[in-house]
Q: What sequence folds into this?
């Protein structure tokens, strides 16, 4: 960064300047379109999670939520009848309230993308939104979901509608029946998207399109784990490219058994290009692919050091890291923020794939986990990813179910919590307070 | 010293040679032994290669004359039934290391195999007795299991060839062996002299026969390229405007186990079509003997010949096909049934390109302190001459009078200092950082030869794929730069201030250079390359800003043998302080 008076010339903690590319000049309003039970909220939530993970501040605004806050108790589909004046009035108010919050988020709170999640099935409603966006200087992008496959719609209703607050007091049959009638209320006035919007996709829009083309809803599971315990792990050293300890190799064997027991068809196995993940994969006796981008975070000058040595040689760096672990970049190395950028193609490919086992590293696994579990930048670097434990992620409803399976092979703990004192002036003992035990 | 030399060879990339008992002569002796063993191993590998089938080849050393990048080993699976299913097809396991016989070897699970690190790419591979065994795919991702046939669709002058060539260039650059097959070319070879549009009349039996033959010849070459020559993607560039013709192609693909992806370009804007004709048709071999007016008139009639029988890709009738329809040069897109990774990458790429005239300026940072001392890498600042370059660059940019110029730099001090001299906003990209030379960072070539003569020789043998220990290769660089290329495609006028290796990679993309040429492209300091897209390619202007600077270009020396003398190795090192 250019030197400014009174400002440190440290580049590592600079924020917006390090952003790969300024995604948008003006904020973007994504608008869903579609009959109920077409996956609009699923898409909205997923897109929001993805954009936040890659560093684009995004929030979703679900008009149904606003309606539930307004009309405390849902009685029946009658509320949605096109001739229900009272219902229409309330729904219009809710949409306005949501748009108002959108405006505040994008114009005043630093948001960059807002996802306006509602049916928006009439041209008239969409025209209102377009005008709203124009007045406020937002770009608009519509995402319509069209589906007539009754099985898909049924599955959708079962997965997410039955559990909705609207139907807490109904049994399954009643809920389904009511919801079907609700859908009918929209069908007659449904005008599919055919607006001719005379502009070219900008960067964020083309990224969104790319993402939406790659996601699917086929049931599958993603397994995340680290390599087996390594020689450097045992010595409390970070980074490097060491091999497995005997316990690490034991983990490999246990992992192999575990995978067999899971009985997964067509499991893809991915590793990094570091020896310890490859050694672990070798124990599975199945084909695997090596990805350089899955390599552990580059600790630069601190590679292969113990935390005690880092405190000794670079106490300032050590403190800065504790102050902002997500954005902190090791000298000649990387930050978690860099890692996320480098891992984006992995996430994209994970979305395309079905059953995958990713054998990676602590920092890498934290980044991937944060994507699936929608963790913030503050939480991410402190997610617990212990050695010899497999996390099984299964998409369900709007989120992800996590099962943590320890394979019962002892290993050293490599998790270092944020110490209380992160001041640059702190003492060694305070800095090293949370370092886990090692040889 | 109980370790065998072979085992030690495996350890040579880690810190100390374990059998070192502190005596320099002993260590030297071990190092020499190891080098000899490596050389023997390389020779053995060459032997094995000669015996092995092409699909599993992985060159450790390649002073190669191949023009395309080697295809990573992969399974011979072809699932021709995947394509037209209603639901998402199951793609068979993409990892490359299984072939039917390998699977059987795996059956009785024994102890995990030992690993050895490939000396060139620093990839860990399983080995037996210290020798590399199988070939795990080193590619980030196996793009396709079965080859893909991209088929263009559209009336003449709709940009099909432009798209074909651009797509081919992009895919080759990211490492997917791709070739285009232009049926018009085949026709020109068949019918030596083009007379007039009459050839294309729908009632011209003779013409139709020849055109059908040409299409078949092209498809035959496609088959050979994809099935026998290691190609992964073939772009079949022709009008393909009737459903009947497309059906023929689909059947051809099914028979051969290729996936099909259609790219249709639809445009009715007369200005765009006119501009198209002027840019690429007038210069075509078909019209060498015509004046502009005659050529345009004839071409318009040619287009008319196709119009009546044109059956555009239909949302309903063609709903089972995989395609993208590009409408009005990217105003709208219709995408249907994207089946796999390569197709989604292709769609993403096609949605990001545009034809708005613009220029891309590429240059390196000004001369740096390390440059002057003949040292590579590092993060040093500019010399006085480097700062002078910054000023000259600022003047140059002003003179160019570019509207809305974006300026990008890396996150290294020398590029940022250069940009600062322009007094305009600029964006820093970490991915534009110079190639990471790992353990060789900040060394002079002389020092690299001194400390790592083997590495230095391997690098000269295959500069594109060679990865520095704890560093990167040009191949890694290309992967890391892909988002930059994508964003450059989206943008209009951009100035990229970067580094030698990075600039070589970007230049190779725009000028369609091979992996062999790329690491030796000349990108001198204090010189700006101005790239302007024109017709099917890129015009390059090299503008030296007349500020002296050290030369940092090292040509490939004649002797790349690992036993060469120091003198031979350092023969092509440019002079420095």
A:
């Amino acid at each position: 960064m250019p030197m400014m008076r009174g400002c440190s010339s440290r580049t590592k903690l600079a924020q917006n300047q390090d952003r790969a590319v300024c995604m948008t000049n003006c904020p973007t309003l994504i608008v869903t379109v579609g009959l109920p039970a077409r996956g609009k909220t699923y898409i909205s939530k997923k897109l929001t999670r993805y954009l936040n993970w890659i560093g684009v501040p995004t929030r979703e605004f679900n008009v149904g939520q606003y309606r539930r806050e307004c009309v405390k108790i849902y009685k029946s589909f009658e509320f949605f009848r096109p001739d229900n004046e009272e219902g229409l009035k309330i729904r219009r108010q809710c949409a306005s309230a949501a748009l108002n919050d959108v405006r505040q988020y994008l114009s005043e709170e630093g948001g960059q993308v807002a996802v306006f999640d509602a049916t928006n099935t009439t041209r008239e409603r969409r025209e209102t939104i377009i005008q709203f966006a124009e007045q406020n200087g937002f770009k608009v992008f519509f995402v319509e979901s069209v589906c007539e496959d009754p099985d898909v719609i049924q599955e959708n209703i079962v997965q997410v509608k039955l559990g909705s607050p609207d139907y807490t007091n109904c049994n399954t049959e009643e809920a389904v029946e009511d919801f079907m009638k609700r859908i009918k209320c929209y069908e007659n006035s449904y005008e599919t998207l055919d607006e001719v919007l005379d502009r070219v996709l900008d960067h964020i829009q083309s990224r969104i399109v790319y993402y939406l083309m790659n996601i699917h809803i086929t049931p599958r599971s993603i397994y995340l784990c680290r390599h087996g315990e390594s020689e450097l792990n045992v010595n409390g050293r970070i980074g490097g490219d060491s091999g497995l300890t005997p316990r690490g190799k034991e983990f490999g064997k246990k992992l192999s058994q575990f995978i067999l027991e899971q009985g997964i068809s067509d499991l893809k196995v991915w590793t990094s290009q570091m020896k310890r993940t490859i050694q672990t994969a070798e124990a599975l006796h199945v084909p695997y692919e090596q990805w350089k981008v899955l390599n552990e975070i580059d600790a630069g000058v601190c590679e292969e050091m113990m935390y005690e040595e880092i405190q000794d040689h670079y106490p300032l760096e050590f403190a800065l890291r504790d102050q902002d672990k997500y954005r902190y970049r090791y000298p000649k190395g990387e930050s978690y923020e860099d890692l996320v950028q480098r891992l984006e193609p992995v996430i994209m490919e994970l979305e395309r794939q079905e059953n995958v086992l990713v054998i990676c590293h602590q920092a890498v696994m934290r980044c991937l986990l944060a994507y699936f579990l929608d963790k913030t930048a503050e939480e991410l670097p402190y997610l617990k990813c212990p050695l010899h434990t497999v996390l099984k992620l299964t998409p369900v409803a709007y989120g992800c179910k996590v099962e943590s399976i320890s394979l019962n092979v002892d290993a050293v703990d490599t998790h270092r919590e944020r110490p209380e004192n992160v001041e640059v002036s702190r003492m060694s003992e305070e800095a090293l307070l949370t370092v886990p035990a090692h040889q | 010293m109980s370790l065998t030399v072979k085992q030690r060879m495996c350890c040579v990339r880690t810190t100390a040679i374990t059998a070192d008992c502190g005596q320099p002569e002993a260590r030297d002796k071990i190092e020499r032994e190891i080098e000899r063993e490596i050389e023997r191993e390389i020779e053995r590998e060459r032997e094995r290669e000669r015996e092995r089938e092409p699909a599993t080849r992985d060159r450790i050393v390649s002073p190669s004359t191949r023009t395309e990048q080697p295809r990573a080993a992969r399974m011979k699976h072809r699932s021709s039934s995947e394509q037209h299913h209603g639901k998402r097809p199951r793609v068979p396991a993409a990892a490359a290391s299984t072939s039917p016989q390998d699977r059987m070897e795996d059956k009785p699970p024994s102890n995990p195999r030992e690993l050895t690190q490939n000396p060139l790419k620093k990839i860990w591979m399983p080995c037996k007795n210290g020798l590399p065994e199988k070939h795990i795919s080193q590619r980030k991702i196996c793009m396709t299991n079965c080859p893909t046939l991209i088929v263009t669709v559209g009336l003449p002058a709709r940009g099909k060839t432009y798209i074909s060539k651009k797509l081919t260039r992009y895919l080759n650059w990211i490492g997917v062996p791709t070739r285009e097959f232009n049926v018009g070319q085949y026709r020109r070879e068949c019918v030596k002299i083009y007379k007039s549009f009459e050839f294309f009349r729908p009632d011209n039996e003779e013409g139709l026969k020849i055109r059908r033959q040409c299409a078949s010849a092209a498809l035959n070459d496609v088959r050979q390229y994809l099935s026998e020559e290691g190609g992964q993607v073939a772009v079949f560039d022709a009008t393909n405007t009737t459903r009947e013709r497309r059906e023929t192609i689909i059947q051809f693909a099914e028979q051969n186990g290729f996936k099909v992806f259609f790219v249709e370009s639809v445009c009715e804007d007369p200005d765009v079509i006119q501009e198209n004709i002027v840019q690429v048709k007038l210069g075509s071999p078909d019209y060498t003997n015509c004046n502009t007016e005659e050529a345009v008139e004839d071409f318009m009639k040619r287009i008319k010949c196709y119009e009546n029988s044109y059956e555009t890709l239909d949302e309903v009738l063609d709903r089972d096909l995989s395609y993208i329809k590009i409408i009005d040069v990217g105003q709208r897109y219709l995408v249907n049934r994207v089946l796999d990774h390569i197709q989604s990458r292709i769609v993403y790429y096609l949605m990001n390109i545009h034809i708005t005239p613009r220029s891309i300026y590429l240059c390196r940072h000004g001369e740096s302190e390390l440059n002057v001392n003949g040292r590579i890498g590092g993060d040093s600042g500019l010399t006085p001459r480097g700062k002078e370059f910054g000023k000259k660059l600022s003047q140059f940019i002003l003179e160019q009078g570019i509207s809305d110029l974006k300026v990008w730099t890396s996150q290294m001090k020398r590029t940022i200092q250069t940009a600062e001299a322009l007094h305009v906003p600029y964006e820093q990209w970490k991915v534009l950082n110079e190639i990471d030379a790992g353990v060789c960072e900040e060394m002079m070539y002389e020092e690299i030869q001194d400390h790592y003569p083997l590495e230095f020789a391997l690098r000269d043998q295959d500069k594109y794929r060679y990865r520095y220990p704890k560093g990167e290769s040009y191949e890694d660089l290309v992967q890391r730069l892909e988002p930059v290329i994508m964003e450059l495609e989206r943008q209009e006028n951009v100035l990229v201030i970067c580094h030698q290796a990075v600039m070589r990679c970007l230049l190779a993309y725009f000028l369609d250079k091979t992996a062999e040429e790329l690491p030796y492209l000349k990108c001198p300091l204090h010189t700006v390359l101005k790239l302007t897209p024109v017709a099917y390619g890129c015009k390059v202007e090299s503008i030296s800003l007349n500020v002296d600077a050290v030369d940092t270009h090292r040509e490939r020396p004649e002797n790349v043998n690992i036993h060469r003398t120091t003198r031979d190795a350092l023969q092509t090192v440019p002079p420095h302080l």
Notes: The longest helix of chain A spans residues 85-107.
